[in-house]
Design brief:
Blueprint lengths: L7 H4 L4 H8 L4 E3 L2 E3 L6 E6 L4 E7 L3 H16 L1 H4 L2 H17 L1 H12 L3 H6 L1 H15 L19 E9 L2 E5 L5 H14 L3 E6 L5 H12 L7 E5 L2 H10 L5 E5 L2 H12 L4 E5 L5 E4 L5 H13 L11 E5 H17 L18 H16 L3 E4 L14 E4 L6 H4 L6 E7 L4 H7 L7 E5 L3 H10 L4 E4 L18 E2 L12 E9 L2
Parallel strand pairs: 6-7, 6-9, 7-8, 9-10, 11-12, 11-16, 12-15, 14-15, 16-17
Antiparallel strand pairs: 1-2, 3-4, 5-19, 10-18, 13-14
Helix pairs in contact: 3-11, 5-8, 6-10, 8-9, 13-14
This protein binds NADP nicotinamide-adenine-dinucleotide phosphate and magnesium ion (MG).
The site of NADP nicotinamide-adenine-dinucleotide phosphate (NAP) has 27 residues, from α11 and α12.
Length: 505
């Protein structure tokens, strides 16, 4: 079957080979084979810039999840479980190489599917995904236990004790649509480095780049069943994965609301759970900050990826004396941003990912204005096709407003003045259920450090924002999550520790 995708304006911008790939219904990856859903169902995947169908994808449900979990278990008990760390590391490294070899193609897919500019996906999403596999490949050979001196008083010196870190087992991973390939990489790479096997449920809005990655995983030499990729809906495939008795651990990224459902589903058999959830991150500007750098950094802090970042700097606290200047500077930047189709090289900001997100974000804009906020710029949707929303700066807000308290996940900044960098500023910045990230802008290094120490957030950026690295742990305090992604810290999400003691005298 060929799929009718009529919008020539975007599809003409990608190579014929990719158009051909999209012209076939995309199957799911189970036990090393590309298969259709057991139910035979497929769902449409759309281009959010044109609202046109890009392709159809196999719609997995509980039956496919069950087959995938069985395949993952067999792979864990099979060649993958016996593979030497060094060979495992080489395969993981090869995955990173293959991602870079397919840089343009993956960036094109990401742009078509998610709406983000191709130019951004090409320099950010795809290279960062490759880097995650490259970085994690090195850990495969460095997961070490410890010799532990014990003081067994009854028989001192008679025992030798050490710890042996072991893969936690079969991991269910559920990811969102904001960085489809990168979220897959953040999840898969550490699970593979630690020797786990995986069933990955990709977001219904953006399954394509992960499915292409699945082809590259097999090309890299990953044994069958080590990674299984099941596209489908959250309340069917996702829920079945979170509750499946054959899954040892669930790793989830998405909304705090669904995070709670995951915990409930996993609690029946007390599966291990890690969660990377929402945020409403404070970004604090002191009056001695470098104004130009701050305006540029705070603009990127909220507008990068159309504000669809869990760590977006969405509450900007600006010291009174410079409030008007900084807010106006960000508004001026917002007005210069060129909105358009992601595959257009001139586009700086694409559409939001879906009609649902478009409805949510424009709903927040409406609620903000109704409650008395004022848009310095933006404040509404843009264009008459696709899910475009104007980058927005809201002022005259009150702490109780929904736009101040809730995660909008769109290009909407709330700018809030403050008098002094004192306890009340810290209290206001921490006045949120979330605790994912924060920013501080000042030339006073000591003051920046004092503030950073008091912010309840898993990441604090000083005079910068959105600086991510595969080596740096990332994750949330409070309701922003459990555990950390990336760096050495993520390994503990996927390991059990076994203490072994032998009698030696
Ligand atoms: P979401 O509903 O939390 O979706 C994240 C993933 O969880 C998707 O793969 C989703 O499947 C799946 N899912 C949904 N319901 C599930 C269930 N009952 N059991 C298991 N899995 C389930 O997030 P969203 O709908 O994409 O966006 C809603 C809001 O979440 C956003 O506005 C934003 O505030 C937040 N969000 C946060 C992040 C982050 O990085 N922390 C990322 C994206 C969104 P399907 O979507 O395929 O149905
Ligand atoms: Mg959803």
């Amino acid at each position: 079957m060929n799929i009718q995708t009529t919008d020539s304006s975007t599809l003409e911008r990608v190579p014929a080979a990719l158009r051909e790939w999209l012209a076939k219904p995309r199957p799911m990856l189970i036990n090393g084979k590309w298969v259709q859903a057991k139910s035979g169902k497929v769902f449409d995947v759309n281009d959010p810039a044109t609202e046109m169908r890009l392709t159809t994808v196999a719609e997995g449900d509980a039956a496919d999840i069950d087959a995938a979990v069985r395949a993952a278990r067999a792979a864990l008990d099979g060649p993958w479980g016996r593979m030497s760390p060094s060979v495992r590391g080489r395969i993981i490294h090869r995955i990173g190489d293959l991602i870079l070899e397919h840089l343009d193609e993956l960036a094109q897919l990401e742009s078509l599917d998610n709406g983000k500019p191709f130019s951004v996906a090409r320099v950010a999403d795809v290279p960062l995904s490759a880097d995650m596999f490259h970085y994690m490949s090195g850990w495969a050979t460095k997961i070490e236990g410890k010799y532990i001196p014990i003081s067994n008083l009854a028989a001192p010196g008679q025992y030798l004790s050490f710890t042996r870190p072991e893969p936690i087992g079969v991991v269910g991973q559920i990811i969102p649509w904001n960085f489809p390939l990168l979220m897959a990489a953040w999840k898969l790479a550490p699970a593979l480095a630690t020797g786990c096997t995986v069933v990955l449920k990709v977001a219904e809005e953006t399954p394509l780049s992960a499915l292409r990655l699945g082809e590259l995983l097999m090309e890299a030499g990953l044994p069958d069943g080590v990674v299984n990729i099941v596209p489908g809906f959250g309340d069917t495939a996702g829920a079945a994965l979170a509750a499946h008795p054959g899954v040892d651990k669930v790793a989830f990224t998405g909304s705090t609301e669904v995070g709670r459902l995951i915990v409930q589903a996993a609690s029946r058999d007390l599966k291990k759970v890690s969660l990377e959830l929402g945020g409403k991150s404070p970004n604090i500007v002191l009056e001695d900050a470098d104004i130009d750098a701050t305006i540029a950094g705070a603009s990127a802090g909220i507008f990068f990826n159309h504000g669809q970042c869990c760590n977006a700097g969405s509450r900007l606290f600006i010291q009174e004396k410079i409030f008007d200047k900084v807010a106006a500077g960000i508004a001026a930047n917002a007005e210069k941003i060129k909105l358009g189709v992601g595959m257009d090289p001139l586009t700086e900001m694409g559409p939001l990912v879906s009609e649902v997100q478009y409805g949510r974000v424009t709903g927040y804009l409406k609620s903000g204005m109704e409650e008395g906020a004022r848009a310095l710029t933006g404040g509404a949707a843009a264009g008459n096709r696709g899910y475009f929303v104007k980058p927005t700066v809201l002022v005259d807000t009150k702490p109780a407003m929904k736009v101040v308290r809730e995660e909008i996940f769109g290009p909407v900044l709330v700018a809030i003045p403050f008098k002094e960098a004192d306890d009340s500023l810290i209290a206001a910045a921490n006045d949120t259920i979330y605790g994912l990230a924060a920013g501080v802008w000042t030339r006073d290094g000591a003051k920046a450090q004092q503030i950073a120490n008091r912010l309840k957030a898993g990441t604090v950026w000083i005079n910068c924002y959105h600086v991510f690295d595969s080596a740096l742990p990332f994750g949330g305090y409070k309701q922003s999550g459990w555990g950390r992604e990336m760096g050495q810290a993520v390994l503990s999400n996927y390991l059990e520790t076994k203490a072994i003691t032998s009698r030696i005298h």
